[in-house]
Amino acid sequence: MANGGARRAAGTLESKIMAVLHRAGVPLTTSAVQARLGEELAYTTVVTILTRLHAKGLLVRAKEGRAYSYAPISDEPGLAARRMRAVMDGRPDRAAVLARFVDSLTDQDERLLRDLLEGA
User: Fold this and answer.
1) Using N-to-C axis directions, what is the helix angle for 43-55 and 10-24, rounded to 10°?
2) Where in the chain does DSSP place strands (E)?
3) Which has the least CB within 10 A, 35, 50, 62, 120?
């Protein structure tokens, strides 16, 4: 890995792999993901991250011969919404979380949220 054995944050690798899969628009095998990353990552590292993302419910996988191909379960905005929902579900006081979130919105984002809620 990087200088002096420094470890890369798993979240950074997960984000990079998710970006590769989103850009591809089709399911990719581990080898294809590894090639598209353009970094010197071990095959086993890519397998580990893909397996973790699948276990987290962020990817679907299908058997292709002896390997799996992976694809995101949702587009990037859908995944962001899923993460936001997971945070909400993990908090006992949803009203307080929502209130803090709304307080942090810009005027433009607040108008957008109102428009979306009224159109729902």
Assistant:
1) 80
2) 28-29, 59-64, 67-72
3) 120
Cα distance between residue 22 and residue 88, in whole Å: 25
Is the domain defined by 3-72 classed in CATH 1.10.10.10? yes
* Cβ neighbours for 73, distance < 8 A, ≥ 6 positions apart: 57, 58, 59, 60, 79
- Across-strand partners of 70? 28, 61
- 34-57 pLDDT tens trace: 999 987 889 999 999 999 999 999
| Residue written as token pair 């908090």 | 91
Query: Would you kindly state where each structural domain of the chain is located, as residue ranges?
Result: 3-72, 76-119
pLDDT tens string 53-100: 999 999 999 999 999 999 999 888 888 888 888 888 989 998 998 999
Residues whose CB falls within 8 Å of the CB of residue 24, separated by 6 or more in sequence, listed in order: 32, 36
* DSSP assignment letter at 8: P
Give dist(CA 87, CA 13) in Å, integer: 21
Q: What is the pTM of this model?
A: 0.68
